[in-house]
Amino acid sequence: MSLALVGDIGGTNARFALWRNGHTEAVQKLTAAQFATPELAIRHYLSSLGLAPSSLTSLCLACAGPVSGEDFQFTNNHWRLNRSELRQALGLKHLLLINDFTAMALGMTRLHEHERTPICPGVSEPERPFLVIGPGTGLGVSTLLPDGPERWRVLPGEGGHVDLPIGSLREAALWQQLFADLGHVRAEDVLSGRGLVQLYRAICSLDQQIPHWDSAADISTAALAGDPVATEVLSLFCIWLGRVAGNNVLTNGARGGVYIVGGVIPRFADFFKSSGFAESLRSKGCMSHYLTGVPAWLVTAEYPGLEGAGVALQQMLEPA
Q1: What is the pLDDT of residue 74?
Q2: Sequence spans of domains, the chain
Q3: How far apart are the C-alpha atoms of 105 and 261, rounded to whole Å?
Q4: φ, ψ dihedrals at 182, nearest 5°
Q5: Could you name the CATH architecture of 113-300?
Q6: Looking at CB atoms within 10 Å, which of 69, 192, 233, 301 has the fewest?
Q7: What pLDDT is stored for residue 76 in this prediction?
């Protein structure tokens, strides 16, 4: 494959790297808000390396949002793009757009063992689907499927927007508070960076507490320092993530295992390991046995989305 560019663009950050000989190099993270369009961000990245767009033949962008048609609107930032216009503007031979969680899922195929931490012990069934789920700016969900030797397919979706599932009277009371604030309550409304803040405010309102923090980082720090309200926020966050993940395992038969990705959980990884995540993942009444033995890992790799974008591009250009 000639020199290619891969990008992983979320709601806040745009990560770019060169893809050469099956590996990423020259990784940079840019803030999306600093550029009017993705094309300008790409040109800035290339210029910083002393490269012109003409040096590229191929580009794969992993984009936050449902990918279809010629025009794409990013879900959680102001960027838009048109496939034909971007390809022509950069003089590309190949342009591939994929959902960011398609890239994230494909990135799981490139992990080293030290880049994943066991959360739920179990034995993977490698011929079965894998679930990839991750709270970040939003909540991403994808299903990774083996597709022959060293090849993979991904079922992209918008699983972060499913209804928030209720599993206790306390959760039901909080759901009512969230409903009063939001109307329709999605999983992402709790299971994301801004969702942590939303959940914290709901608990304060329900319990008639005065809120003191307005960022996910501050709430996480307070919880780790022992604040009881912030601690409940993180505890419920982990429980709800387990419940949503378990629902997805049941729906897709993802007995290959569960990969937990995204930028939120690593802020409180030790807390997460001892949280109620594992119990809520597997607590499914008469179907609890189905999830017994399904492993789950917390992914600590730095740029799995970029790796996955490279895998997607390589599979497109080098078909089996």
Answers
A1: 77
A2: 4-105+303-317, 113-300
A3: 9
A4: -115, -25
A5: 3-Layer(aba) Sandwich (3.40)
A6: 69
A7: 66
